[in-house]
């Protein structure tokens, strides 16, 4: 048995009384491709931060390079060969590729004067390590996501890394870019550099990983080889529950569409979108980041009015050119980022719920009937089982799942006919996620037309009766979730846009 | 009803708004100090009457600034609006009722001037709001610019000299003592407070202001007419500034482009001291009113010490402003624990 590059043993870490990590042990051998899997909030990020010296663990040890630490500083982590590539890559967008690559070395050498020639040589050497070509004078902000990632990887390799930790590296990549990334990871492996691959995308982690560690609620659930796992056991270990794969089957679907779009487009975001939504349906729209899914949602909601095409509601062409007109047409929108787009965090729960219908509590004299508004807030708190002792409390006292219910309640209170949800369960704990799905199914069965926009493939497959895949600004396919597997749908979403011509 | 149920809301209020409680305690301490050290002044009615004439000038401005800060903006143009409208209405009054005109003409001039001033104030405020909401320039830049603009207009109208020679009727009305003791400016301030309390707590507009200040994107996504709300807020601020201008016009019996130049900072200071979050979304009227009174009492107290020069005043105001901001930061729980190094509680 070779010595480990890094071994963390029995790590515990609590934040403000919440046990984020509880006795985690993780060992990585040289050149190993190790997958760390776990749900949002399972402690993955905290563990990475412990390994890279950002957080000091409360208990446990970190063995690195033959030395044992009770806590690391970021400098110690880096000098012992641990490099982290975060989701945002931590690159400087306003600097050139060369500056991004060479500046650290230049600064570390405590030189007073900068030599551009030396920097260029350093940068060239860095990109040569992973065999990619790029214009060194390009501003990093202009690069594609995949190129930025390569810059970040090159930079990480410059400092003699032994372990590269990649946090969700494939989130915004196309299939071809993912393949290129995997080739680089395998190349690193050949040179004895280990990779800790953090992801929750099942297909990818099965493709590349040699060993798995799954954590849940801050505890290690299992460390095993890929042969010992299949999709079902993987999900079970991640969530701790058994999944009943019951697909959503709408009860009554109206014949007439409630919402239609014809050739809808927003310049630079998406084009030629034709979709129909009937009462009682849950329509899924899925696509990668940058596929145009969010822009489509915003244009249906009037926040980003369409440049071309038309929107029909109940068969009549309507002008949805502002949020207010969308609301007037009975459209509600649960935004992608509830913290910045959906909630008034320091205001009360009840005022968050009633804000969109506030004008209906105003008497003829113009006075606001606060008691009536509070009663309405309370009603929705009860209805959606929002866990709070008092609706007058500020929204930021609640957990993600409860906050999402507030956004949902705000729209349900306006009696919408069409509800568009963008990433309805992002950052929501698994229990609430289940509850939110149940609420959506109930709403559809009560005659609402629901659109779920999400890149969470299992979510759309299970909860929608039709799913459309978006890729590079176009709807490329419409599938029946009962007969399509997750990997087939993922394939449609992430096919390289250049091979997708027009409509699929 | 038992005593307990009537006490609960009060206790709730005290614990929920520690800031207002703190201000009330400061006020009581200040008054006690005043009473003990300057007993003679403290028990003289004239002390309080002069205060009541003075503080409505900046108090009215602060009420307007408060609304703009609740929506996450700021209004630095209030003094400019006050001087411009005061000069405009002074000019109007003098042209309707020149020296030697009879008294009905004088009263007509007063009514016309008040209406004119409030309308011009509303227009000036709406102009601020338009630039902020529609042209999307940050409020601090817009109102700094319009402050210079309005002051410039005032300078041009008067040529930089004070506009004086108002009809006697104006001074007569504004110098009234209601019930023989309460000065007219205080009555105006109380009326303004009632109006603003109704707006803030009894209308949908008031609730929406807080929501807008808390999160503008969410407000837009909730279907609020955000541009309209912003314009109406600055308009209200303009009207209150114009009212302040009318009080100043009466107090100095003249109008000049550079009167009340320290009031900009003072109004902002009052609002922050009153507990309004400069990022918007929170703050209470009661806090701001208490802050107005605290600063006026502090100011009058300073006046009773002949050896403390007026020159110290900006220094004291600036110091108080910074102190309040620092104390507010400290009392946020996390910052406090970080400051005292509580272990294991990062982020």
Write up what this structure looks like.
The complex is a heterodimer of chains A (504) and B (347). With 504 residues, chain A is α/β, with parallel strands linked by helices. Chain A folds into three domains: 6-239, 3-Layer(aba) Sandwich (Rossmann fold); 248-330 and 418-426 and 446-504, P-loop containing nucleotide triphosphate hydrolases (Rossmann fold), CATH 3.40.50.300; 338-415, no CATH class. Helices cover 34% and strands 24% of the residues of chain A. In chain A, helix 3 (97-108) packs parallel to helix 5. The model of chain A is unreliable at 500-504 (pLDDT under 50). By secondary structure, chain B is an all-alpha fold. Chain B has a single domain (56-304, 311-325), classed as Orthogonal Bundle (ABC transporter involved in vitamin B12 uptake, BtuC), CATH 1.10.3470. Helices cover 75% and strands 2% of the residues of chain B. In chain B, strand 2 (177-178) and strand 3 (182-183) form a beta hairpin. In chain B, helix 4 (45-70) packs parallel to helix 9 (184-202), helix 10 (204-214) crosses helix 12 (226-252) and helix 13 (263-273) crosses helix 14 (285-303). Chain B is globular, with a radius of gyration of 21 Å. Classes of the chains: A alpha/beta (504), B mainly alpha (347). Chain A binds chain B through residues 14-16, 55, 58, 301, 303, 323-324, 327, 333, 335, 340-347, 351, 355-356, 358-359, 361-362, 366-368, 370, 410, and chain B through 201-204, 206-208, 210-211, 214-215, 217-225, 277, 281-282, 344-347.
